[in-house]
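>> Question from a student workshop board

For tomorrow's exercise we were told to take the sequence and the ligand below, predict the bound structure, and bring the output to class. My setup keeps failing. Could a helper post the expected result so I can at least see what it should look like? The ligand is manganese (II) ion.
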Amino acid sequence: MSQKYLFEPAPCPTVSIVGEEKIFPVRRIYCVGRNYADHAREMGHDPDREPPFFFSKPADGLVVGGASVLYPPLTEDLHYEGELVVALAGGGRDLSREEAESAIFGYAVGNDLTRRDMQAEAKALRRPWDLSKGFDGSAVLGPISPAAMVGPCTNGRIASYVNGELRQEADLSQMIWPVVDVIQFLSRSVALAAGDLIMTGTPAGVGSLKRGDVVRVEIEKLGQIETHIL
Ligand code: MN
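>> Workshop helper replied:
Here is what the output should look like for this input. Compare the format with yours to find the bug.
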């Protein structure tokens, strides 16, 4: 007799794919800590080319399809972070450049929502800050554009707007570590696999959101995502 679950397992989070009926099943969400020099500076760090560092968000923290986000608890300083997200359809450990490149399925526009005050407090107290980054509704994502369709995302404008006002503007070519390097570094720490998403870091200009705000992130070739904060 086969064993049965005590209760139905939670459904696998998914993301839609541009020009494709199939949907992308999500395994893990990784994020790069600092990947634009001007943002590293605004957070009080030296943007020298130190190796990237990573954190993660729960896959079920995804917000897709333009859904609204409830202002999260335990913060008075919810921040937007507009980011390029890379979606993997392959993986492995200790990937070569070629292996990292071929693991890429596509790209999406993302918003790495952050409880900045909680993060700052955790840093000051030398405590883990994962819950400042990994909370319900913390990973906003647009549909995935296949790399086969849009090509490599090594340059192009990335911008964020709050209530129509420009707040972040940069070019993907300003990333300290480009996507392929990010994948290679991460694969030295964990085994990557199909279904993994990597949020690749945000440029300068992060700031607060309040209830009622509309935040829009756009990336050349990938379109935009608009999120209402409730
Ligand atoms: Mn981020």
